[in-house]
Every structure is written in structure tokens, then in C-alpha cells.
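User: Fold this; C-alpha cells only.

Assistant: Input:
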Amino acid sequence: MKPFVLLATRAEDVPADEEYQLFLRYSGLDERDLVRIRLEAEPMPRLDLDALSGIFVGGGPFNASDPAETKSAVQHRVEAEFQTLLDEVVARDFPFLGACYGIGTLGTHQGAVIDRTYPEPISVVPVTLTEAGASDPLLRDMPPQFDAFVGHKEAITTLPASAALLASSPDCPVQMFKVGENVYATQFHPELDVDGITTRIHAYAGYGYFAAEELELTLAAVRRAAVSHPSRILRTFVERYAR
């Protein structure tokens, strides 16, 4: 089998390593078949799409809607690298699944409006499939509504005509979309379980996702409902595109 790639941007080793382990666990891949590239540490290498089965993108602290002058040199580099990669991915309709930060990269590439209109605190939210989502092959094993982990400062306000809306939540109209037949992005985190999001809550406590005095409330919020369905998307992605 040709390997999949996980493009990651987390600078903190503990959540970065756990993110990789979560993608391995829920995709069903092993380390030989899921190559991790930490973009915050090194430039993106030239990816030969003919040698790959598909691409995953993990979450991270970068926000596409941040003013350009506040972005670090690393963020500017990573954004430019994604623009170049997505030129080829979209043109070839190559299998791509971006989670959280992935929706910002793909959304930016396609000309979506991304701003601070629809943030969601770190929590569990109900995600509802659209008619297009309910009939999409990647979501074939998903119920019409399912709980998912979220936590983001920005979101897509307006999708371009090139994109198909697949899922929404009460406070965030774009939870998942696709471009073409094989290029996907989610606002929610399909890779997370309760232990994984607990690690991230502690790791990013000072990043503005919640106030210092809200730590315990935030930890309680991610335990209020069992989250089990979203990870199926990762395994279905692998089953559909492994070659």
C-alpha cells in the first residue's frame, strides 16, 4: 500500500505526538503507512502525490484570519506551502482530509470567507449532515446527527461555489465541506477522544480558547456527552483511498 501523510503544525511535543497516535489508532494505519511531517519544525518537502494514497491535515494554533502582520514567519511559510500543495491536490482531486486547521487551509485556497463570526468554545456539539452529506460516500457510516469535539476561534462564514456543504452545527454553519469528489475538510476533530482533547485543553490553556478560571468548566464540557462517531470518518477515508 502507498502511505498516507499527516501534515501537522503543533509545536508542543506532547499534543503533537498524541495527535499522531490518535490518527494512527482511528485510521487503522501503522507508522509505516502514515508518515508524519511536522511543518512547524521544517519546510514541507515536495510531496509526490503519485507515491501516496492520501493526505491528512491535523489541527493547530494557526488562524487563517489573523492579520498578516501578527503571523509568525513560520505561519506565513506554512500557509504558502499549503497554497502550493492545494493547487495540485484540487486540480487532481487527490484524496485530502483536513481537520480543524485543514478547513482554514482548504477554505482559504478556495476563497471562502473565514472570520471570527462563528467561533465555538472547546466542547461537544451536535453536528448535522446536510442532504449532500448524508449521501456522501465518506460519511456512509455516520448517523444524520452525531456529537463531535470542537474548539476554534475562527470558522467559515461563506463557502465558495466550488464547495459542497456536508455538515453544520447550531453555532457554526460550516462543519464539513468538500471540493470535487475527494477533497474534504472538517471544522470538528474526527481524530479526538476524551483523553486526547483533555491533553490539548491543558497544553493550550494559555492560548485564548478559554479564561484561566474556566479550566475545570472546559474539562467538564468535553465530558458531557460520549463522542464515538466522528473517528469512523478516518477509517472510511483509509478504506476508500488506500491503494
